[in-house]
Structures are given as structure tokens and as C-alpha cells.
Amino acid sequence: MPSFQKILVPIDFSALNPDVLHTAAELCRRFEARATLVHVWDPELFAVPAVPKLYDPTRVPGWTDKLMHSLERARHDMQADGALQIDIALLEGAPYREIVRFAHDGAFDLIVLGTHGRTGLAHALLGSVAEKVVRLSRCAVMTVHKSERSSPMATDAVKSALEHDDHCSSKEGVHGSQTQHLDGTRDVR
Asked: What is the pTM of this model?
């Protein structure tokens, strides 16, 4: 059975947060693992050529203070769900790239992140951070969908993911990842 000691929990402060935090806290309790909550903000999202004043570098300290405060609140929520060892980090850059880099550099065993389930045009235009993380990560990735937290299958799916012996290692040379969805389906890349 795989043993997760370091769990990376990227959050975007969306409606998915409670579900992602709850799932990660459950895993932390089960394995007495340390979690790191991370948020990645991308200043390029504010660089709109038609609106040059939208991105004002003098306002960045205020934004980062608010983001750190939000990470602290998320840490408190995970602690309320029973996770004890939680670090926080605020990163800047392209979210999927920074999540994959941070996971690799920190030798994380598992990434737990939410997926919005966008399809069609919305997916084509916005892309999917979760999809890119699954594709590029060297460690196991568990995606959480909003509607699944209250599902009775959620706990069984987490148990199934934990009992699966094809856990990806974060060692050099290992390429690919496995995603265990809370609906019981599994993707291996």
C-alpha cells in the first residue's frame, strides 16, 4: 500500500476549495502526512494591452497580503478537518508550471487538486490546470470534483486510491502519473 508523507494541495480559492481541503485533510490524517497548501497567482492575467492600468505593480504587496491571509484561512479549515502539519506557499507564474515544479523540487508524494470539469469551448479557451498537472507531474495526482464530496463513493474512492499498488514515485527517471478520481475512475499516464 502506498504511503504518502508529503502532500501538495494547490488551491485557487474557488468553490472547490472545501472539497479539496477536506479530501487532503482526510489523507493527512490517515498517513500522518505533512501538507503544503499552495496558491499560484499569474500576473500575466492582469496584463491586458487594451487596459494598461489594470496591472499596477505598486498594488502587488496588497494582493499578496490578501492571498496569504486566504491561505491562512484554508490552513485553519484543514486543521479543523484534522490535518495537523500544514505549510503554506504563495507562488507567482503559470499555475500548472509552478505546481509541477514545486512538487518536483519538494519531492512530494501526492498532489491533491480540484478540477472544474470544463468541457468544449470553455476548456479549449481556458485550458485545464489540473489536466496539465496530471500530464506533467512525476508524482501521483488525485483530482477532486465539487459534486463528489458528499457522495458516499468519495471515501471508498480515496481508500481505493490508497490501496492501489501502482503508486508513482517522485524519483528521477519516473515519468507519468496516475489520477484516482473520487468517482472511482482512474487515469494512468
From this structure: 0.73
